[in-house]
Amino acid sequence: MKYLLAFVSFFVTQHSTLIFDFNKQADTGGWQIVDDVVMGGKSSGSFVLNAEGNGQFKGQISLDNNGGFSSVQYQFKKIKVNKDNKIIIKIKGDGKTYQLRVKSNTQQFYSYIGSFETSGNWQQIEIPLKDMYPSFRGRKLNLPNFSHDYLEEIVFLIGNKTPEKFELLISKIALN
Questions:
Q1: For the sheet containing 111-117, what is the strand order?
Q2: 98-141 confidence digits (pLDDT tens)
Q3: Residue 40: which region, alpha, beta or left (left: phi > 0; alpha: psi -120 to 50)?
Q4: Bridge partners for 153 per DSSP
Q5: How far is CA 80 from CA 13, 113, 129, 150, in A?
Q6: φ, ψ dihedrals at 4, nearest 5°
Q7: Which of 38, 65, 141, 173 is at 20 to 30 A from 26, Cα to Cα?
Q8: Nearest-5° Cα angle at 174, 134 to 93
């Protein structure tokens, strides 16, 4: 309860822009799974709103056929950002490493990446936009870190180069 109050207090007192608030009435129809099957792999992920009202991203990573990733993405109306903004996520993971990816424009062929570790407990993680590096198909690009004026897509991805089951619960995503 103490952590919940601190989290709510944080979102109320900070001038945050809510990107997505998961709750029992949330419309998750805009969230889409993209697995390595798009390139012949055999990983499988799913995304649902669980009974507690959290986004639940889970599945199985397979390395068969040069696969090895699963992701869930959400595109939204452009949000104005600046160089000092951070993405704040409230998540509960399974002890694995995940990536948060963003795009300033859905037509961009590459994403900006920030990795985070999960602990098995509820966590609030802050990822500064300016620390997110550009990448395409797992390769870091020789471009500057994120420095755009807008956000239009957010993605959670797991791809740790190991076959594994995974589960990530998502409660809130905000920009501060």
A1: 31-35, 70-80, 150-158, 97-103, 111-117, 133-136, 139-140
A2: 999 999 999 999 999 999 999 999 999 999 999 999 999 889 99
A3: left
A4: 75, 103
A5: 20, 18, 12, 5
A6: -60, -45
A7: 38
A8: 75
